[in-house]
Specification:
The chain has two helices and twelve strands. The chain has helices at 23-32, 57-75; strands at 13-16, 36-38, 43-45, 81-93, 99-102, 109-116, 122-126, 148-152, 157-162, 167-169, 178-193, 198-201.
């Protein structure tokens, strides 16, 4: 009997805001677009703590709830730790712009929340490769032989993923602007205990 096991999978949490984005939240995003800086091939807010703004307090609650779910159900730490947001910013991607392939350093779990998506929008993730390996031409793609994966997204979608997972967004070919909010996290609390060492992050 032949058995195929999937070991060490990459956990991605997908959550959906079960309501419409409010006019106040939309106005904040619109106002923030007036104060941006150029990224590699799109624009991002100058502010890097947008989730601390009172206009986004309910979205932050939604994000914090999802982060806690990721912590409890995926990381499942023995000790009492907290995942907290270290920085957050808004991305504006206009027609003919894209979001370059990258990862988020100095972070544990990163996330993206979508304020405005295109008709067939997605985010591409890339397999983390280490060491020498061969890349075969494949006739049928599956979760074992694929090096990338396109995850469809819609307005109100939240995605949480390991920060070292490389990702990018395709070129916007529509007339409207793709708007997303990105953030990074770190942990505080007792991370690990061994007989001679106790690692605590405050």
């Amino acid at each position: 009997m032949t058995i195929i096991e999937s070991i060490f999978p990459t956990p991605i949490l997908i959550d959906t805001l079960e309501r419409e984005i409010t006019n106040e939240e939309k106005q904040f995003v619109k106002n923030t677009a007036m104060s941006v800086r150029e990224n590699i091939n799109n624009s991002i807010s100058i502010s890097n703590n947008v989730l601390e703004n009172p206009y986004l307090k309910n979205i932050k609650k939604f994000v914090d709830k999802s982060l806690n779910s990721y912590k409890e159900n995926i990381l499942s730490p023995k000790n009492d730790i907290e995942l907290y947001i270290t920085e957050s910013w808004i991305n504006y991607t206009n027609k003919n712009q894209s979001h370059h392939r990258h990862q988020h350093d100095n972070s544990i779990i990163s996330g993206v929340f979508y304020f405005n998506t295109l008709e067939t929008d997605n985010i591409s993730f890339y397999k983390n490769k280490s060491g020498l390996s061969l890349s075969f031409d494949v006739k049928n793609s599956n979760n074992f032989n694929s090096l990338s994966y396109k995850l469809p997204v819609k307005t109100g979608t939240l995605i949480l993923f390991p920060s070292d997972l490389q990702h990018e967004v395709d070129v916007n070919i529509e007339e409207k602007t793709r708007i997303s909010l990105s953030f990074n996290t770190f942990a505080r609390g007792i991370i690990s205990e061994v007989p001679t060492i106790k690692l605590t992050i405050i």
